[in-house]
Every structure is written in structure tokens, then in C-alpha cells.
Design goal:
The complex is a heterodimer of chains A (255) and B (330).
Chain A (H helix, E strand, L loop, with lengths): L1 H16 L2 H34 L7 H25 L1 H9 L1 H6 L5 H33 L4 H26 L5 H17 L10 H9 L6 H5 L4 H28 L1
Chain B lengths: L1 E9 L4 E10 L4 E5 L6 H8 L7 E6 L2 E2 L4 H6 L1 E4 L11 H11 L4 H14 L15 H13 L5 E5 L7 H14 L4 E6 L2 H7 L2 E6 L2 E7 H9 L2 E9 L6 H10 L3 E10 L2 E8 L6 H10 L2 E8 L4 H9 L8 H9 L1
Helix pairs in contact in B: 3-4, 4-5, 8-11
The chains are: A mainly alpha (255), B alpha/beta (330).
Chain lengths: 255, 330
């Protein structure tokens, strides 16, 4: 456990010493801020229309702002995750520092967990930016915090799963760009795979839409903790890290 | 301290290391010598548990590299060909990280960091980014990280590669200073390095063990017969090489004469004599009495370089080590 922490600290150090973390934070902050501003704009216009028509439509911050925004974050995340994970192993392989890690009295699994935890931590920092915006809602309105908390849990689980996949892909190459591009492709596919369920109901379509990560987030966005979806994400995390471990091992045997 | 038995590493198409066996006693400095691609790096990687052997066994301090790799890793300090440094870290930060990885902590860790900084003369760059350091400093930081946990065994892969002559000397002295406390294996393809630094030499070529012996024995072994180089010139008239050769062959104790070179009427002969016979005086007398000039007479001592070429079969073919290294990190 101590070793996991040592590796995690080192990874966070290199995220925050280089501009990587700050660029990601600023970009994420700006993009999410724009989404938030838009959602708020629509909410206000809708509210005024309701008033003019004299309808007593119940305006709901959770349903009309938080829920769609959480879904947006889950998709924006797909674009940021490759940038977080691409260097994790590729960089170590390129510079040869992987030899230092692999010849130190540290288990492969500890290295992998440390790196993955660091990437999850950086992603959590991105989420903190969204929390700032939501704090504004709490100051000026009274949304329910419980669905929001569940939503964040879902975001973390989804990101954890994609980060695990990204970590695995990073072990396959020593070129960061390749690792990033492949991870991005995979993330994108895992987002759009569910579209097939729109026109096809055969088994293959159901399987494809099941392995798509985005629909599993629906329940979390609604504020519902559905164990089915939670288990899906946890399984993907487990598989991703498992394949990372296999990949590190085969690196030694194969070469 | 290190026992290697029929260690073999096969890659998909090639055999990088082929049944190598050797032993290294505690406190020795051993030079691991071979042309590029001989399998030096692969062998070292197996000893450091980075690569698992395909066959055979290796034990470090009594622990098997495959079965008890954690114990082996705790007792080994390793400096790969390129120092494994993180350019975005400061020297002290880096040493702290490596120290923790190797299991040090607290006051112990701080003591070791101070010690290795002092030992490797990197105290003045403690607060500098590793990416900004010169090659020589990087190498010394690499050495510092290798000894930070005071390992029993040090494995250094071409520790002087790419350094300038002054840095090479400093690094060699540093490594020599480690002997005694640590058992050291260092690889190199530079022969003088072995002559200057090591007590024992292990020569490998094309993945096979060629020789393992002390530096002195190795030189003596390859020399065999004594040989002498003569440079002879005619005083007034041009020389006839065959006549000179004939005359020299008649000196007692001479077993072979070879005309090596001829420049401006001067001839260079290499004369071999039976082992243990000193023929130089007789050769000189013969030349002078024949009315020729003896410009030079010297023993043709074989350098380790020649020993090495003789042992490895004097070939200069391109080698697959780089390819292997690239495949590994691909």
C-alpha cells in the first residue's frame, strides 16, 4: 500500500510540475463553464416564458440543470481522459525509467494502482471545477444535493473505468501520441456504440449498446444509484487494470 | 555473491544469451566485456529481474532471480545504459523517490541521500531539475540512485558511455571506490576501462561466454609465445627481405619470422620465439654483424584489445542488440 502511495505521489507530481494538469484544468473549466452558462440561460428563458403564460409549471434545478449538465460532463470527460492517461506508461517506456520501476522491490500491481489512482485524482480535480459552478446553484436556489452526489459518484466510476482502459493502452506503446489517439478512439467508440440500439434490437446490438459506457451513466445522472450500472463500471475498472498487469508482464516475457 | 548457471535468453528469432555460466565473489569488480550486441545488456537485465530468463538459473546473494525476485531487487542497485531519470524532478526529489521505492524512509532516507550526494559529488545540483543537468551529472545521479539503498550488488550497464574523457576518469574512480562495499558488475565495450577498473573479466560474444579470468591471466594466456618486432634498414645498399628473413630464422630459439611491412627500404619483421627463450640480444647481434641498421627492437606485447579480438574471433558485423532493445520498449 505504501508503494502505491509513493508511485501515486510521483505521478501527481509530474502532472502538476508540468503544465499538463493546469492546461487540462483550465480547458475543462472553460468548457464546463460554457455549458453551465448555457444551461442557466435556457433555464431563465424557460422560467420567464412559464410566467408569461401564467402556467405553474414546476421549475426544478435538479431536473433541468444538474441532470443534463452531469450527462454533458460525462461526455466531455471522454475527451480529457486520453490526455490524462497517455503518458502514464508510454513516457516511462520511452525514457527507460520503466527499468527503474521494474527493478525496484515494488510489485507490478502496486505500480499500476499508483498510476491509475493518480489519474483518477487528477480527474477529480477537474470535477472540482464543476462543483464550483454547482455551488452557485446552491447559493441562489435550493436543489437537492443527494442526486448530485450520486451523479458525482457515477462520473468518478465512469472516469475510473475509462482511465483504466487508457492506462492499459498506455502500456502498449512508448509513443504518447499513439497511446492518446488510440485511447481517444476507444473512448469515442464506447460512447457511440449505444446508437445501434436506436434501430436494431438483435442480440449483437444489445451487446454493443450494453458495453457502451454512456447509457450506464443515465441512472446516476437521474440521481439513482443502480447497482447494475455501478457493477458495470467496477467490472470495467477491474478488467482494465487486469489487462494492464498482463500487458506489463508480457512486456517482460515477450520481448 | 552472484551465481549464473547456463543462463539463456531467447527472443522470437534470436538467442541473445546462450547458456552463460559464471560466478562473482563478494566485493569484486567484474568487467562484462563484449562487442555491441553480445548480450551484455540482456544478461544484466536478467540479473536485475527486469527480464525473466528462458532457461538456466541465476542467483544473487543466494536468491533466485525468478522465484525470489523481490529479495533480489532489494539487494541490487542497477544503472541502465541511460540513467533512468525523470527530467521534471529535482535531484533531491528524485533520490527521495528512488530511496522510498527501495524501501527507505524517514531519517534513514535523509542520511542516505546526504551520503550518496556527497559520494557522487552531486551536492551542488541537489536543487536542479534533472532535465537540465549535463550528461556527466546525470550519470552521477544515476550512480547515486543505484547505491542509495546500499545494495550488496551493483550492476552498471556501460557507466561511462557518452562521457568526455575527464568525466570518464571521474566515473571510473567513483566506481573503483565502490568496490569492497559492493560487488560490482559493469559492462563495457571499451577495453582500457576493464584494464583500469576491473579485477576479473567476463568476455562474451554473440551471446556465448568466451572467457572468464583475471585481467592479467587473460593477457598472459593469449600471448603464448614471445614475439619481438624489429625494424631493419640497409646501410648502403637496398635490403633483400628474403635474405634478412633467412638470417633471422637461423638465430637459435626463433620459431618464426614474418615480414610485416616495408617502407623506404626499411623492413619491419615480427619474430616469434619459443616460450621462455630470450632471443633479443642474439637478434640484435645478428643484424649488426650482417652490416644492417637496427632501428628498433621491441617486444610485441599484446594489449587486451588484441586478446579480445583474438578471443572473439575478430569480427565486426552488425549486431542485433539495438533491435532487441527497441523491440523491448516498443
Amino acid at each position: 500500500m505504501r508503494n502505491v502511495w509513493i508511485i501515486c505521489r510521483k505521478e501527481l507530481g509530474s502532472y502538476f510540475v508540468s503544465p499538463v494538469a493546469y492546461i487540462l484544468l483550465v480547458m475543462f473549466g472553460v468548457i464546463f463553464g460554457f455549458f453551465f452558462w448555457n444551461a442557466l440561460g435556457f433555464f431563465v428563458i424557460e422560467g420567464m416564458e412559464m410566467q408569461m403564460r401564467g402556467q405553474a409549471f414546476p421549475m426544478n434545478l435538479n431536473e433541468q440543470i444538474i441532470r443534463p449538465l452531469l450527462s454533458n460532463v460525462s461526455v466531455i470527460g471522454l475527451f480529457f481522459i486520453p490526455m490524462i492517461t497517455m503518458r502514464l506508461f508510454a513516457e516511462e517506456k520511452r525514457t527507460g525509467t520503466i527499468e527503474l520501476l521494474a527493478t525496484s522491490p515494488v510489485r507490478d500491481l502496486e505500480i499500476i494502482l499508483g498510476k491509475w489512482l493518480a489519474s483518477v485524482t487528477l480527474y477529480s480535480c477537474l470535477l472540482l471545477f464543476t462543483a464550483l459552478n454547482f455551488a452557485f446553484l446552491f447559493k441562489n436556489g435550493n436543489p437537492d444535493w443527494k442526486p448530485l452526489a450520486i451523479g458525482y459518484l457515477g462520473l468518478l466510476l465512469q472516469a475510473g473505468a475509462l482511465l483504466a482502459i487508457g492506462t492499459f493502452i498506455s502500456t502498449l506503446t512508448k509513443n504518447q501520441i499513439i497511446a492518446g489517439a488510440v485511447t481517444f478512439g476507444v473512448c469515442l467508440l464506447l460512447w457511440v456504440l449505444e446508437w445501434v440500439s436506436g434501430y436494431e434490437t438483435a442480440l449483437w446490438a444489445r451487446v454493443l449498446s450494453y458495453i457502451s459506457v454512456v447509457p450506464h451513466f443515465e441512472s446516476f445522472a437521474r440521481g439513482v444509484l443502480d447497482s447494475k450500472d455501478a457493477i458495470f463500471y467496477v467490472t470495467v475498472i477491474f478488467l482494465g487494470l487486469f489487462f494492464t498487469a498482463r500487458s506489463m508482464e508480457s512486456l517482460r516475457w515477450r520481448s | 555473491m552472484i551465481k549464473v548457471k547456463e543462463l539463456t535468453k531467447k527472443y522470437a528469432r534470436t538467442i541473445a544469451v546462450d547458456q552463460i555460466s559464471f560466478e562473482v565473489a563478494k566485493g569484486q569488480i567484474v568487467g562484462f566485456l563484449g562487442p555491441n550486441g553480445a548480450g551484455k545488456t540482456t544478461t544484466m537485465r536478467m540479473l536485475t529481474c527486469f527480464l525473466p530468463p528462458s532457461a538456466g538459473t541465476a542467483t544473487v546473494a543466494g536468491f533466485d532471480v525468478l522465484e525470489q525476485s523481490m529479495e533480489v531487487k532489494r539487494r541490487i542497485g542497477y544503472l541502465p545504459e541511460t540513467p533512468p531519470i525523470y527530467p521534471e524532478m529535482e535531484t533531491s526529489e528524485y533520490l527521495k523517490f528512488v530511496g522510498k521505492l527501495k524501501g527507505l524512509s524517514g531519517a534513514d532516507l535523509q542520511k542516505r541521500i546526504d551520503y550518496v550526494c556527497d559520494r557522487c559529488a552531486i551536492g551542488d545540483v541537489k536543487k536542479k531539475l534533472l532535465g537540465k543537468l549535463s550528461k556527466g551529472y546525470r550519470q552521477r545521479v544515476g550512480l547515486a540512485q543505484a547505491i542509495i539503498h546500499n545494495p550488496d550488488v551493483l550492476i552498471l550497464d556501460e557507466p561511462t558511455a557518452g562521457l568526455d574523457p575527464k568525466q570518464i576518469n571521474e566515473t571510473r574512480d567513483l566506481i573503483k571506490g565502490f568496490a569492497g562495499d559492493h560487488t560490482i558488475i559493469l559492462s563495457t565495450h571499451i577495453l582500457p576501462e576493464v584494464e583500469q577498473t576491473c579485477e576479473q573479466v567476463i568476455i562474451i560474444n554473440k551471446g556465448r561466454l568466451v572467457a572468464t579470468d583475471s585481467v592479467r591471466n587473460l593477457r598472459a594466456r593469449a600471448r603464448g609465445a614471445e614475439s619481438v618486432v624489429l625494424e631493419i634498414a640497409g646501410r648502403d645498399r637496398a635490403l633483400d627481405a628474403t635474405i634478412v628473413q633467412h638470417k633471422l630464422e637461423q638465430v637459435s630459439g626463433v620459431s618464426g619470422v614474418q615480414c610485416k611491412n616495408q617502407v623506404d627500404g626499411r623492413f619491419i619483421f615480427e619474430v616469434e620465439s619459443d616460450k621462455g627463450r630470450l632471443v633479443r640480444a642474439d637478434l640484435a647481434r645478428t643484424v649488426v654483424e650482417s652490416g644492417w641498421d637496427l632501428n628498433e627492437l621491441r617486444p610485441a606485447a599484446m594489449s587486451l584489445e588484441e586478446v579480445f579480438l583474438q578471443l572473439t574471433g575478430n569480427e565486426a558485423e552488425p549486431v542485433p542488440e539495438k533491435v532487441v532493445a527497441e523491440e523491448l520498449s516498443a
